Amino acid sequence: MIARQRTHLTAAGLVGPATLYVGIGILLPLAILFRYSLNQFVPGKFMVDALTVENYVKFFTDIYYYSVLTRTVRIALITTLICLVTGFPLAYVLARTRSRHKNLLIMLVVLPLFVGNAVRAAGWMVAFGNKGVINASLMGIGALSQPLEIMFTEAAVIVGITAVNLPFMVLTLQSVIEGIDRSVEEAAFNLGATPPQMARRILLPLAMPGVLAGTILTFILSMNAYATPVLLGGPRFQMMGPLVYNQFIQQNNWPFGGAIAFILMAATLLLTLAANLMVQQRYRTAET
Amino acid sequence: MARLELIDLSKRYGEHAAVAGVTLDVADGEFLVLLGPSGCGKTTTLRMIAGLVEPSDGRTQIGGTDVTYLPPWRRNTGMVFQSYALFPHMTVAENVAFGLEMRKLAKAEIEVRAREALRLVRLEAFAGRLPRQLSGGQQQRVALARALAIRPDVLLLDEPLSNLDAKLREEVRIEIRELQGQLGLTTIMVTHDQEEALTVADRLVVMAEGEIRQIGSQRDLYERPADRFVAGFVGRSTFLDGRVTGPGEFETAGGLQLKCRDGAPGAAALVLRPERLHLGGANMDNRVPGKVEFVSYLGPVLELHVRLSPADRVLVQLPNRGDAAPAVGDEIELTWHRDAGMVFAE
């Protein structure tokens, strides 16, 4: 009995601090924020206590705000897809390499994370500008007569967010692929599977937990991107993250900001859940 | 089912030669075992036959066709991996059907052949299970059925029994041998376990340091080992250092004068099999007094370590006939035929 009690105490000790932190630091402010989102905003008086859904109605009935949401989802889907398609082969090579320099290669993948988002976006600005590296080079060799409009476009934002998220995808996939027995792939080849057949029938289903985790991670990061869309998208390009910030800080409209924050969260959660269900229906790996 | 020829097959990793010029001719339907310590190149050889490792040199022919540079999926070899390598997300039936699907057979035929393969290994009842719901021995048989289902030209077994416990290993070993004979499959098995090798093989190949040291029957390897390595690797033996002093004459480092098989004069090792040494037998060429230093009781046999001189100690196996066994400290006389003493030059 005493021994059992002690293990209970140990477990509480291990789980406690993080739980407390999440409870006080995240859930409580969220609850308060949700309450705010049901308040009214009266110009000049800021927030007025109320119990109304008008902030939510406003978001979905105003085409401007609604289009910010669809744009955000679109960019998040595109960047996540690019991360998955380009990250998978890279993760596979990293997982399977027997090179002595494997740790160095992994460091190279992680290296971009050492640079903050804002600093990196500033770097892309140097590259993308009308007189930036890309345009200057292309015009220098005579490939272009007019500079390409890259800066302040959706394309620039997609490139920027992809660059931020790719390491997360690669690292997640790499650790899962490493856990797949190499001889299982060899067995497939031995039984007559070509590399594409092996990838589709064996590798991908077995890597599915990693694909899911990586996709969810990068999707959430994309949905909530802030620095990259602000710096590379410019003042007229809006995504949900910057929009929330604007409402709180520039418009001082806390109720509407709170509502947008919750819509962003709900959209992210719903889409993630939907993807999860779809994948689980197609592959049976999740049951392990 | 086909003849398999390896011609001067080599694999080098940088400076290191994992396999250095292996030449082998395996007859149609033959069961050949590659035997050797870990790192001797036997698994690399097997993987080159399967096409999973590309050789640096030499050729591989299956059924008279050169397959040296064919990718694994275009050869018709069936491999059973040491870890079984079953597809964990597929049922037993799906695992066995995989190779048939890759061959684009009709659905009905796939089903028939997959069921037949499962019947061969007596696992029809488990068709719907996932690999992780099976015991080690059952997984091993699924791996075998999966390799058999494609009707391979050559069956390749990579240490197929090493993950099974001793009792099961013996059963499966016999089962594999029976199936192989019944189907007339050309089979190459890799193992480091001599007993396993001895019970299943038509012919054995002993490898060391990437080279073939000897090819032969069980009896050849045991009674006429080609070199010191084979003598030490196959069966148990005592090595006595010394020199050959004349035809059939050997002097140990400890000064014993012994009769043995003929060997080139000079520094050599005398190799004695433990069961060829007797206690006080008649008409023997060698009679040497000694002192028992260690006794282990193994059931059917007793093992003695007997000191013959300060520098020479031999291992002796005596059949356990139930009479009073020698004890530690006993003075005894060991006898053996000159034929029991094999000599290998240093």
Polypeptide structure, described:
- The complex is a heterodimer of chains A (288) and B (346).
- Chain A has 288 residues and is an all-alpha fold.
- Helices cover 75% and strands 2% of the residues of chain A.
- Chain A is built from twelve helices and two strands.
- The mean pLDDT of chain A is 88.
- In chain B, 25% of the residues lie in helices and 36% in strands.
- In chain B, the strands form four sheets. In chain B, strands 6-7-8-3-9-10 form a six-stranded mixed β-sheet, sandwiched between helices. In chain B, strands 13-12-11-14-20 form a five-stranded antiparallel β-sheet. A five-stranded antiparallel β-sheet of chain B has the order 15-19-16-17-18, with no helix packed on it.
- The longest helix of chain B has 18 residues, at 166-183.
- The two termini of chain B are 43 Å apart.
- Classes of the chains: A mainly alpha (288), B alpha+beta (346).
- The interface between A and B is medium-sized, with 21 and 25 residues.
What order do the SSEs of chain A take from the amino end to the carboxyl end, as H and E? HEEHHHHHHHHHHH
Q: If helices are DSSP runs of H or I spanning 4 or more residues, what is the number of helices of chain A?
A: 12
- Multimeric status of the protein: heterodimer
What is the C-alpha radius of gyration of chain A, as a whole number of Å? 23 Å
The level of helicity of chain B is: 10-25%
CATH topology of chain A: MetI-like fold
CATH class of chain A: Mainly Alpha
Major sheet of chain B: 6 strands, mixed
Number of strands of chain B: 20
Strand order of the largest sheet of chain A: 1-2
Q: Beta-sheet strand percentage of chain A?
A: under 5%
Query: What would you give as the CATH superfamily of the largest domain in chain B?
Result: P-loop containing nucleotide triphosphate hydrolases
- Provide the low-confidence segments of chain A as ranges: none
